[in-house]
UniProtKB/TrEMBL annotation:
It is found in: Cell membrane. This is Cobalt/nickel transport system permease protein. GO terms for cellular component: ATP-binding cassette (ABC) transporter complex. It is a multi-pass membrane protein. One of its GO terms (biological process) is cobalt ion transport. The chain crosses the membrane at residues 224-244. Its main location: membrane. Keywords: Cell membrane, Membrane, Transmembrane, Transmembrane helix. The lineage of its organism: Bacteria, Bacillati, Actinomycetota, Actinomycetes, Geodermatophilales.
């Protein structure tokens, strides 16, 4: 079964053995800074800090981190263009403050996404979910996230298997066959995922699972040095941003 590149990076990260709570607080602080500080220089500092931490101390491969950032950038670009359009009696045009609004929106979104990806590429989901439960996130939310995470790998495996079979039958040899095979692939993956989810629900119900699956999580101790460095770093970003803005 093929895995996710981000998940593989998280398991091999140098921060794998750091407390997930520490990393959550760090990334949460960066996301809050990206949300409330001005685009210049706040968002630039947040994005640069998250990238430097990922590629430096955490030793996330630059290729994987770059590919992870690329997809959010596409949605950010589309959302930014939509937000700065103005529709009036004269038709569709740009808003009067389009450049400023676009820069602020894109900067905040990209900086926040980079901070979230820092957490995703350094913390396996098996460490993150117990940490969220300890922080008071409702058990139902954590349980749904766990099931969705497992189903992602089932979908990826189904997608790879079906596509390989279609390719072996020359399903992508022409444009017409590509459209036809892509539609069949989407339908087959959707049907199979629905069936696997139904069987999973029936299996858990048959075993009397009403409160969630209890496991013994691996406890990683917090580091006061790391937490202190986080507080100093976030404070420095806020101070520099306030001073320059």
């Amino acid at each position: 079964m093929s895995g996710l590149a981000i998940d593989d990076a998280a398991w091999s990260s140098a921060w794998r053995w750091r407390s997930p709570t520490d990393k959550l607080l760090l990334c949460l602080g960066l996301v809050v800074c990206a949300s409330v500080l001005p685009a210049w220089p706040g968002d630039v500092l947040v994005g640069a800090t998250a990238t430097a931490l990922a590629l430096g101390p955490a030793r996330v491969p630059p290729r994987i981190f770059g590919r992870a950032v690329r997809l959010p950038m596409t949605f950010i670009a589309l959302g930014t263009v939509t937000a700065v359009l103005s529709i009036d009696d004269g038709g569709i045009g740009w808003a009067p403050d389009a450049a400023e609004r676009a820069g602020s929106l894109a900067g905040s979104a990209l900086a926040g996404s980079t901070a979230v990806l820092l957490l995703a590429t350094t913390t396996p989901i098996s460490d993150l979910l117990p940490a969220l439960r300890r922080l008071g996130v409702p058990a139902a939310v954590v349980e749904v996230a766990s099931v969705v995470y497992r189903l992602v790998f089932v979908l990826l495996d189904s997608l790879r298997t079906i596509r390989e079979a279609q390719t072996a039958r020359m399903g992508y040899s022409s444009l017409r066959r590509t459209y036809r095979s892509s539609g069949a692939l989407a339908a087959a993956v959707l049907t199979r995922s629905w069936d696997r989810a139904r069987r999973l629900q029936e299996g858990l119900a048959g075993r009397g699972m009403e409160t969630g699956l209890r496991v013994l999580p691996e406890v990683l101790p917090s580091s006061w040095v790391f937490l202190g460095a986080t507080a100093l770093g976030v404070g420095a970003i806020v101070s520099v941003s306030v001073a320059l803005s």
